[in-house]
Amino acid sequence: MAVTQQEIENRLWDAADELRVAMPEAQYSSVVFPLMFWKYLSDTWDHHHQEFLTDNEGLLDGLSAEEAHEIEYRDYQSFEIPFIHPDTVQQRRASWSSILATITQPGLGQRVRASLQAIETANPDKFSRLFGSMTWTSEEVLPGEVLAAVMQAMDRTPKMHEGNMSHDVLGGAYEYLLKRFSDGSGTRAGQFFTPREVVELIVEVLAPKSFESVYDPTCGSGGMLIASANLLKAHGGRGYTLRLYGQEAVPDTAGVARMNLFMHNLTQFQVEVGDTLKDPRFKKPDGSIAQFDVIVANPPYSLKWKPWTKDPRALGGVAPQSSADWAFVQHMIHSMDPKKGRAGVVLPNGVLFRSGPEGSIRRRVLNDDLLEAVIGLPPNLFYNTTIPTCILVFRAPGTKIDERKNGVLFIDASKRFIKAKNRNVLAEADISDTVTGRFSRS
């Protein structure tokens, strides 16, 4: 029987709810997402292992363990679930089911941590630093009996492998948890989650195409990268062909993004950890900053930062220490491919009016004819701020359509919203009306 979206979402929330006795809801994500992804990996590995055993029944008796291992990992497995404490009496596979079998024994958190670290180490190209800091595996942070309750509840979730659950269902469940944590937790959880309808609006405007590169310099949970692939697929393109790049300052959040991308069956991605303004991680072979076809971002607003002293990104000047808003814009402009690059960023309305250094940068951007459009958004769309915001759309020099050259399109969507429980929401019709007839996918 096919697994329904509602079923997996309910079971996963039941598991998350076990944490209520040990930590505030804002911290649930640091525990639930690593456990969920570990279960997904383990269920997938177990499924392919059983296929290997079934397909090769009667053929394995004459093979050594090394030969059988080589065949399995060549033909069936795409990653390794190794053993922890190999060659000792404590040896066991670093899988969900193996550790779950020891759930009543002391030291559960230590075994979970050892398992996640073993998976990272065994698969450095795929899973390096994937699970984040794992501080929650400490007994002082999360008592063993609570961790056991979470794992037992999550184990009631149907098997998370492709033979039982589509990636659309799995990815949807992951996004459901992201939204649920943000809805219930306010600022802290909302910092890395941009509402889906805002993401869809930006991506619709920029219209990624098959085989293009998409970059998010403040990628949070990876939602904009995933939306780019989903939108391309919805319009008949091949979302899996996109090359996705993200940078995120918080290591644990970068791990959330990587897991999110994997669960949406997107494998052509690279998510790096670091401060984009101070240490941009994506570079060309000559050391200059890499350039991309599509750039999307919802950076932290009015972030205090250490201004550049000498940097090629400082188009028109340097943003003030009190607000890095225009510094993020300068970074995105510098990162646009010179022939077809375009960028969309969500920022507070103040970026349109502030004077001083920001005014100088704004004038330079306008003089260079880089700003294509400003879309005014309704207030209270976001989880961590009620201030009104806008989307700024940029195009590489000389690539605007003729009717917009030396001008800027202004779209007022500030009254287009539905009032929801905790915030305002853009409806699908609002997104469609904003884009249709103004931005082309050709």
Quickly count the helices: 15
| Biggest β-sheet: strands ordered side by side in the sheet | 5-4-3-6-7-9-8-10
CATH architecture of the largest domain: 3-Layer(aba) Sandwich
How many beta strands in the DSSP annotation?
12
Regarding quaternary structure, what we see is single chain
CATH 4th-level superfamily of the largest domain: Vaccinia Virus protein VP39
Q: Can you tell me the overall shape?
A: elongated
Mean pLDDT: 90
Task: Give the number of domains.
Answer: 2
Element-level helix/strand string? HHHEEHHHHHHHEHEHEEHEHEEEEEH
Largest sheet: 8 strands, mixed
| Helix share bin | 25-40%
By secondary-structure content and strand pairing, the structural class works out as alpha/beta
Radius of gyration: 23 Å
CATH topology of the largest domain: Rossmann fold
CATH class of the largest domain, named Alpha Beta
Distance between the termini: 41 Å
User: Uncertain regions: pLDDT < 50 for 5+ in a row?
Assistant: none
Strand content: 5-15%
Architecture overview:
This protein has 442 residues and is of the alpha/beta class. Helix content is 40%, strand content 12%. The protein is built from 15 helices and twelve strands. The chain has an eight-stranded mixed beta sheet, with helices on both faces. Strand 3, helix 11 and strand 4 form a beta-alpha-beta unit. The longest helix has 28 residues. It starts with a helix and ends in a 7-residue tail after the last helix. The model has no long low-confidence stretch (mean pLDDT 90).
